[in-house]
Amino acid sequence: MAGKNEYTEKDDKAVQSLSDELPDEDALFDLAELFKIFGDSTRIKILFVLLESDLSVNDITKVLRMTQSAISHQLRILKANGLVKYKREGKSLIYSLADAHVNTILSQGLDHLAD
Fold first, then answer.
1. Alpha-carbon Rg of the chain, whole angstroms?
2. Phi, psi of 35 (to 5 degrees)
3. Closest residue by Cα to residue 75 from 106, 90, 54
4. Residue 95 in contact with residue 85, Cβ under 8 Å?
5. Contact present, 59 and 98 (Cβ < 8 Å)
6. DSSP codes joined into one string, 25-70
7. How far from 71 is each of 29, 31, 92, 113, 114, CA to CA, in Å?
8. Residue 67 gets which letter from DSSP?
9. Is the pTM of this model over 0.85?
10. Phi-psi region for residue 61, left (φ > 0), alpha (ψ -120 to 50) or beta?
């Protein structure tokens, strides 16, 4: 008989059930790729700035005190991965978060760090 603090191995049926619940390989690969995007502090800074306000590239460069080419490069990556979008206003492109999921990911990440 197992003691109170002893772990008991799962039976084969329970293990198979857990295995069956895993997302498919393509979904897991795509999720890993998404999280890689969050692995760059410049991209995270851009996302946090856009969390507060929709901004042009020039405004983002001023806020983050970085070059326009550095910001533009990171924005291309964020846009290609569906995390930001833009609209044209005159000659300017105004960037914003693509959807509320980005806000949720950032907020939950901060909550996790605070625990």
1. 21
2. -70, -25
3. 54
4. yes
5. no
6. HHHHHHHHHHHHHTT-HHHHHHHHHHHH--EEHHHHHHHHT--HHH
7. 27, 24, 14, 26, 28
8. -
9. no
10. alpha
How many Cα atoms within 13 Å fall on the side-chain side of residue 18?
A: 5
φ, ψ dihedrals at 9, nearest 5°: -60, 145
Provide, for the chain, the percentages of residues in helix, strand and coil under a 3-state DSSP scheme, each rounded to the nearest 5: 60, 10, 25
Taking Cα atoms as reference points, which of 102, 99, 100 lies closest to residue 35? 102
Q: What is the SS3 assignment for 29? A: helix
| 84-89 sheet: strands from edge to edge | 55-56, 92-97, 84-89
**pLDDT at position 33:** 92
With 0-12 / 13-18 / 19 or more C-beta atoms within 10 angstroms meaning exposed / middle / buried, residue 110 is exposed
Helix (H) or strand (E) holding 56: strand 55-56
CA distance linking residue 85 with residue 3, whole number of Å: 56
Q: Which residues of the chain have pLDDT under 70?
A: 1-3
pLDDT of residue 17: 86
